[in-house]
Write a structure and sequence with these properties.
Number of helices: 8
Mean pLDDT: 81
CATH class of the largest domain: Mainly Alpha
Number of strands: 0
Order of helices and strands: HHHHHHHH
Radius of gyration: 30 Å
Distance between the termini: 74 Å
Strand content: under 5%
Shape: elongated
Structural class: mainly alpha
Helix content: over 70%
Largest sheet: none
Low-confidence stretches: 285-289
CATH architecture of the largest domain: Up-down Bundle
């Protein structure tokens, strides 16, 4: 085997990692891969059954996302095992199959590595949602207190309309409503802030993973071009394989492309029919046209 280059070796931080340092290891990681069936089923059945009522729905979502992350973690591990087995299988084949299968294994192993990194980045989204859940849980007591006082006043007005407790309870209700207003405003603000931040974590992670997958797929197809798949007749000998340097360079190019990628260089851009921001919607040609239009408007204004 001519294992001349490997992405599995220790590498310097990529441009993406320098731009946005990797997050801490995911809190969802399991000590035993694939052994979470019982725990997973319990979480699914128990999700949303405990804790303050206001926070139960989001608690259920957060617990289910934990299962998603553990599933990805298992897939990443299995992917790396597949890559190793592909290289082992190819080693006893002809030179071209041996070399190309080994290099394909390197690329597939890198896919597993990227999926493993994705788990940590995706977990940042889940952790951010926990902030909303915690605020919801803290707001529940103020809602409960306000409702309890309201119910007591209604009960007294029905049972004893002249009760001296009614004015006292009404004063307590005023204070409870004031406290509730503060808590509800805080919940409203934090919900929007953290929902936006959390899904930005998720979508940025998905964007990076998807575009790097696309890069690897392209270099993988380039490796396949080194295989001579023209049929041979019995007894005929194929030309000697001379693609070792080419396959090595493809792997080097793949690593360089993956290492240089940053979110600013993302290729796929959304094309929205509802324009919100120039950066997200317009391509370079449209931005130039918009700039020219603004200059015309300014000239007319002068």
């Amino acid at each position: 085997m001519h294992r001349t280059y490997s992405l599995r070796n220790s590498r310097a931080p990529t441009a993406s990692q320098l731009q946005t340092p990797p997050p801490p290891s995911s809190t969802t990681r399991s000590k035993f891969f694939g052994k979470t069936g019982i725990a997973s089923n319990f979480r699914k059945n128990a999700a949303g059954s405990f804790g303050p009522e206001l926070a139960r729905k989001l608690s259920a979502l957060i617990k289910l996302e934990k299962d998603v992350l553990r599933s990805i973690e298992v897939v990443a591990r299995e992917r790396r095992e597949v890559a190793k087995q592909l290289s082992i299988w190819g080693e006893e084949n002809d030179d071209d199959v041996s070399d190309v299968s080994d290099k394909l294994g390197v690329l597939i192993y890198e896919i597993g590595e990227l999926e493993d990194q994705f788990v940590d980045k995706y977990d940042q989204y889940r952790i951010t949602l926990k902030t909303i859940r915690d605020i919801e849980a803290s707001v529940q007591p103020s809602r409960d207190r306000k409702q309890k006082i309201t119910d007591e006043i209604a009960h007294l007005k029905y049972k004893d309309p002249q009760s001296p407790k009614i004015p006292v309870l009404e004063q307590e209700l005023v204070r409870a409503e004031a406290e509730s207003l503060v808590a509800e405003a805080q919940l409203s603000n934090i919900t929007r802030e953290k929902l936006k931040a959390g899904f930005n974590y998720q979508f940025d992670a998905l964007r990076e993973l998807s575009e790097k997958f696309a890069l690897i797929a392209g270099y993988g197809k380039a490796l396949l071009e080194l295989l001579d798949d023209s049929p041979v007749t019995p007894g005929e000998t194929r030309p000697a394989y001379d693609g070792y340097e080419a396959s090595k360079q493809i792997i080097i190019d793949a690593e360089n492309a993956l290492a240089a990628w940053t979110i600013d260089q993302a290729v796929v851009k959304p094309a929205l029919s509802l324009h919100q921001t120039v950066d997200d919607v317009y391509d370079e040609g449209e931005e130039e046209w918009q700039g020219e239009e603004e200059e015309v408007v300014e000239e007319h204004a002068e």
